[in-house]
Specification:
21 helices, alpha/beta, single chain, nucleic acid binding, RNaseH_sf, coiled coil, 5 strands
């Protein structure tokens, strides 16, 4: 048995300091049963006091036992009584109290009666002490306190009316105190509820804002993942295009043909787990086109032989022919196909001649002995040796500078004569003029058209022109279109022979030999579309001139 002070100390530790029941038992060393400590706490929570032990055989006062029996008589349930008021510790003890104590001095029950059934029977009786459940009324009052505070007072007045005068005198003050406490508690609860509602509303707004941010971030994360996947596919596709299809650096996926795209997609499917639908979307290719290309590749290329022939023609002709001249070369060999096919095959196989605009070499030194412009950009002649065009161009290699002076017949575009040297002097152009006279013969008296370079105004040039009986014609100052046909010949020579090649380690003597060999090929083998797919020499032979 524990004293009142010991039990009160244990309960205060739990109520005031919030210490747990097991912690209290470890700290104080008592009680030995946690159920006993829990019963003390329930009793204090219900009545705000701990009963005195002295004078009671089982630790409960007569007032506590009477209260427990009253509550049982009102509710008719042993377990509910213990659960609500917090004691006694077992239903068996409560049964003993119900059998021992009577609420009405003139109303006893028989020993063989069931106390639970007796309690339920008394609920339906007319005893003035059997009243409605006071806790239910307090609960109703607490729910109605916000609507009408007078309701609580009316409820208490109704309860007081059913009591005896003696009991009323004792109970009125306690009920008023209980009502005041209840009102204060209800007001505090109202304030706390209002604060909780406000906090809940603020929390709800923050939660909503956070949800929206989470959704936005999830959407951005998904989009970023999609963009990353697309970039990874594009990067791997470009790698495959460079390795498998031999595409040069800087190539775009947009310029790939459907056949090349199908090859890239097959390679990606074999080396990664990308879905086909995603690959088709990134490479901008229809699904039907992909499967068509796959079936076409399985069937084989029926133009494989002609493709190889085109490659051979392109390489043998110094990689300078465009698709039109390749088409004419194929026709000469008896292979008939459309220009569009030739152009497509050359594009797919990357057989593209190099083209670059040359920086014009200028030999203009001022006006010394000008001549009129007799051509006026009419670069046509109906007979051989009627109109000749001449000019000088420069080749700059690592070993030094090389100059080419050439004279071209407008009739068929043949380079009639040329000289190559390391200095653009009078000897270079005069020697070329003498060679041209030997090639044309004494019976030809052409017009020789040039720009206003100093070479064509020197006395030596003028003297040779008079000696041969040839006529001088010169372009306007700084007007390159006036001699465009001759400059076009030099442009073709440089594009086909000079540009897009490395001349490091090549001596001047070797370069001159290479250039001279090319000029012979230009006249004898290089076909011209305007001559019906023949070279200038072949064209003259076909006319019986040579």
């Amino acid at each position: 048995m524990y004293s009142h002070e010991e039990r009160l100390k244990a309960v205060k530790l739990h109520v005031d300091s919030g210490m747990g029941l097991k912690g209290i038992m470890r700290t104080l060393g008592y009680p030995h049963d946690i159920k006993v400590l829990r019963q003390w706490c329930r009793e204090f929570k219900f009545s705000r006091e701990i009963h005195e032990v002295d004078g009671f055989d089982d630790g409960y006062s007569l007032k506590q036992k009477t209260l427990a029996v009253k509550y049982f008589v009102n509710c008719g349930d042993l377990r509910r009584t213990i659960r609500e008021i917090g004691y006694p510790s077992s239903t068996q003890r409560l049964k003993i109290w119900v059998e021992k104590y009577n609420l009405n001095e003139n109303d006893h029950w028989q020993a063989d009666q069931n106390p639970v059934k007796w309690g339920q029977d008394r609920q339906t009786g007319s005893s003035p002490l059997i009243q409605e459940n006071p806790f239910e009324e307090i609960e109703i009052a607490s729910n109605a306190i916000y609507k009408d505070l007078g309701f609580l007072e009316e409820l208490f007045q109704r309860r007081l009316a059913t009591m005896s005068k003696k009991d009323s005198e004792v109970t009125i003050e306690s009920l008023k105190e209980e009502m005041q406490v209840l009102l204060r508690n209800m007001e505090n609860l109202r304030k706390e509820n209002k604060a909780l509602l406000k906090a809940n509303q603020s929390l709800g707004e923050k939660t909503k804002s956070l949800d929206e941010k989470c959704q936005t971030l999830a959407k951005e994360y998904k989009e970023l993942g999609e963009q990353t996947l697309i970039k990874r596919i594009e990067y791997e596709a470009l790698e495959i295009a460079a390795e498998t299809i031999k595409k040069e650096e800087g190539i775009s996926l947009k310029t790939l043909t459907n056949r090349e795209k199908a090859i890239v997609i097959d390679a990606l499917l074999s080396r990664s787990k990308y879905p086909l639908k995603k690959l088709l979307t990134v490479l901008n290719m229809a699904k039907a086109s992909y499967f068509y290309q796959k079936s076409a590749m399985k069937a084989g290329d029926k133009y494989a032989e002609i493709r190889e022939t085109i490659k051979d023609k392109f390489k043998k002709n110094r990689s300078v022919y465009g698709y039109r001249r390749i088409w004419l070369a194929l026709r000469k060999d008896g292979k008939i196909l459309s220009e569009k096919l030739v152009r497509r095959f050359m594009k797919e196989d990357h057989l593209v001649p190099y083209r670059k605009k040359a920086k014009k070499y200028s030999s203009y030194k001022g006006e010394i002995s000008p001549a009129p412009n007799l051509v006026n950009r009419n670069f046509h002649a109906d007979e051989l040796g009627k109109l000749l065009l001449t000019d000088i161009t420069e080749f700059h290699i690592s070993a030094g500078k090389v100059y080419l002076s050439a004279i071209t017949d407008v009739f068929d575009g043949k380079i009639v004569a040329w000289t190559i040297g390391t200095s653009p002097n009078a000897k270079l152009v005069n020697t070329m003029l003498v060679k041209a006279r030997e090639a044309l013969g004494d019976d030809k008296h052409p017009i020789v058209h040039s720009d206003r370079g100093i070479h064509y105004q020197w006395p030596g040039w003028i003297a040779l022109m008079k000696k041969f009986g040839w006529t001088r014609s010169m372009s306007k100052k700084g007007c390159s279109p006036d001699n465009a046909a001759c400059e076009g010949v030099f442009g073709r020579v440089k594009n086909e022979m000079f540009y897009n090649r490395s001349w490091i380690g090549v001596s001047i003597k070797e370069f001159i030999a290479y250039l001279d060999d090319y000029l012979h090929w230009y006249n004898e083998d290089r076909i011209k579309i305007t001559l019906g797919g023949m070279s200038p020499v072949e064209y003259r032979e076909s006319l019986g001139i040579m």
